Every structure is written in C-alpha cells, then in structure tokens.
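Retro notes, structure queue

What went well: the backlog is down to a handful. What didn't: a couple of records were mislabeled last round, so from now on we paste the full input next to the output in the thread. Example, using Lipase-like C-terminal domain-containing protein from Phytophthora sojae:
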Amino acid sequence: MQTLFSVALLLLSAAVATATNTYPVVLVHGFAGWGRDELLGFKYWGGIQGDLQAELEAQGYTVYTASIGPFSSNWDRACELYAQIKGGVTDYGAAHSANHDHSRYGKNYTGLYPEWGEENADGSIKKIHLVGHSMGGQTIRMMAQMLEKGTTGPPVGTSGSTISTPNQGTTLADGFSEIGDTIKDLLVSVINVVGIFGDSVDLIYDAQLDQWGITAKQDDETLQEYLDRVFSSSIFDSGFKDVSIWSLSVAGAKEESTWVETLSDIYYYSYQGHLQKISYPNILTMLLPLDVLSIFLGSRYAPDTMGLSTDWQPNDGAVNTISMSQDYVGDLVEFDGSSEIGKWNEMTQLTGLDHGRHAALPGPRHLRGPHGAALQSAGGLGLLSPPRNGQLDGHRQAEQRHLDTEHCDGQHPDPGDLEALCESPINTYAENYCATMLNSTLVNDTIATANATVEAATNTSINTDVSSTRRLRG
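Corresponding output:
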C-alpha cells in the first residue's frame, strides 16, 4: 500500500508542509457513488487500492467522506452536502420542493464538521477544502453558489477541486434514453468485477431518494432488483429536471451555469483525464463496464445531433474531456505553480485514466495522483495541516511529477502492464479485479458486446478512425 500511496505523498508540495492551519478536506462522490459504510466496506475513495481517507489521516490530514444522493439533482445533493457537513435536518427549500413536488425536509445529520463557519480565537473563520469526483464537482460548485449568493451560511472555503467533473455536462447523460439499461447496470457490473457479489440481499446501498417517496433497499431485495425499482420511478422519465440525469446532461449543465457562477473569492482547480482521441476503449486500462459507454460518448459529437464539435469526442468512459476543464462562464488558466483566484486553474491532464480510476476504483498504481495534487493545491493556499511524517523536497517532487506523467500515458498498453499491476494485490477486491481483467475470454466478450451495443444504440458508424481502430484490435 505504501508503494501505491507514495505518488500522492510526493505530489504534496513544500507549501503543504509549511501550512499553519488545520482546515479539513471533504471528499464528495459522483453519480451512483456510495458512503463508507455501504457495499460491504468497498470504498468509493480507494477501491481496490484501499482506503484513501484512512491513509491521508495516517499522514496527519483531517479528511471526511460525504455520502449524498447518488442519483439526485445537484440542487438536492448540495442541500444534503451542507446538512451533512454542518449538521442538522436537510432542507431542500420551500420553493424548490413545491416546484418539483417532493418533500421539503430530508435526513437529519449529526455533522461531519459542525464547527464549519465558526470563528477562531484570532477572528479567522474555520473553512474546508472540497474535492469532488465527477458529479461531486458540480455539487460543490452549486453549494458554494447557494451559500454565497442565496442564503446565510458559513463561507465554503477558499478552494474546490473537481476531478473528472462534467462541468459542461456529459453527452452520456443526453443519451440515457438510448443506453439507459447499460448505465443502470454499471454499478452492479463494477462491484461484480471486484467480487462484492451484487446479487447478495445483504449488500447495503442507498439511493437516498426519500424526498421522492422511494424507500430504501428492502431486506429481501437484491441490488439489481432495488436499482430496477429505483429507475422505474417517473423522476427518470425524459424531460424531468430535478434529477441527476438532467444535471449531468449538456443542456442541464448549461442551464445551471446561468446562475451557478465562477465565484471571485474561490480558487477552482480542474483535473482532466482521457483515454484515446477516438475514445475506443482500451480493455487493459479501462474498467470493463465503461467500455461500451466510452464508444458511445465518442460517437456523439456530430453537428446534426447535438451541435457539438469533434472536440467533444475524447472522454474517460463517462465524461467528455473538454467538459472537465471549466464551467461555461469562468476564465481558464493553466496552472504553473501559482494559483489565480476566481478562475479555473487547469492542472496537468492525466492520459490513459478511465473515469473510475480518478476516484481510485479499479486502476493502476499511480491513481493517487489527482488526489495528491488536489491536496498540494489546498496546502499551497494554507488549507491543510502539515503532514506529521515530514516534508518533501522540491527536487524530489518535480522528479515524481515527471514520473507520474509518464505512468499516466496509457495510449499504447501491453498485457504485461496489467500483469505488473496485479503482482501484489492488496485486498480481496484487487484480487478479484485482477482475475477478471486477466481473463482473456471475458475481455474478448467485452469487446464484442461493446461493438454490438454501440451499433444498436447509435444506428450509425462511429467514425472512420474508429473502424480502423477496431480492425487493428481484431
């Protein structure tokens, strides 16, 4: 585990070591995510690599993991996130709840960090650093907007990091009606790949849609049966807006950006990832259930469908890479070691990483990179306490950043890469994942299924280059 975690530590800058305050980090999951006590202990933030929160805490950081509605809209998730951090009953707002015809109040939380927003003895405010993966990044931005512009509440903090976030939406959400069953089955597929056994009635997973009257998973329901019941709700019908699918869509993200601003007093950091230009999946570097989604995403750029250019073609299996950099309204600057407030500071792009690996789901040894860089950014702003286990010299950090960039290049993988990855799996989840990925029969079946599904979904050829890629892959 130390080998796997070393990249994150090496990416922590000297600024972290000299930070003087102790603001905690809050990790916010994305679409279909889960909390620390769900899925038999399989961590969203860590996956087959272990427990990211626990490892960071062992290094001296204060870290909390939020658990909010995995299929809810950004509005509802933002309300839940606030209540969970600060403590108290979730209030979705009188007007919002009435407009969308759901309950105004939700769960009552004890609070991950109830002191948030209180004054220290020196008059400074206790703040937090927010790190969101995928939809979690959208949720962070909306909560910040609601607190700063819409209501009274504690200052959010001075920075927020979005990792593989569809800040401008993802075309995958726009195509939900075409491949909805595939997306619905994604969670079950992921946990089966790592051997959690999704058919078990003992498996805990909460869609957290109580405001809609959708009850929790019953004792005699399998996970598949539960998700079938959840997705049969009318809130997932086409045109419904107070739900994740709308928030994640290109149109939904654009609509939300009409009032969710790039705030002038917050530092924004964006981390991108992509697989290949044409985005035909690489079965040695990509989580198997994301294969078909990657091809589908790569096909949805033609001007006669959504009016999007080919710039929207590259993706990480769930989000178009171009959408990860910034929202529709803020300025984008390339991060050069100096952060600019009120702008999107674009970090180094991680090539060859699929969407799940940014949250440390099944993936390679360098997966801690985005999280370490996020903490590096926070430390540079004085958001974190210094790690207990010493400092990192600048030369070593720069050397490791170069090494990490090389490791992130997954354009031309070799079967040996996967074998090397699986030499020393650290837990049973990793063992099951490696056994699955190394099964050539399953890999070949996945390619065949991906081809058939995409052809049926799009009813068109993806691209001449994709066809060439198919031939090259056999």
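Agreed that this is the format going forward. Reviewer comment attached to the example: Residues 136 and 325 are 14 Å apart (CA to CA).
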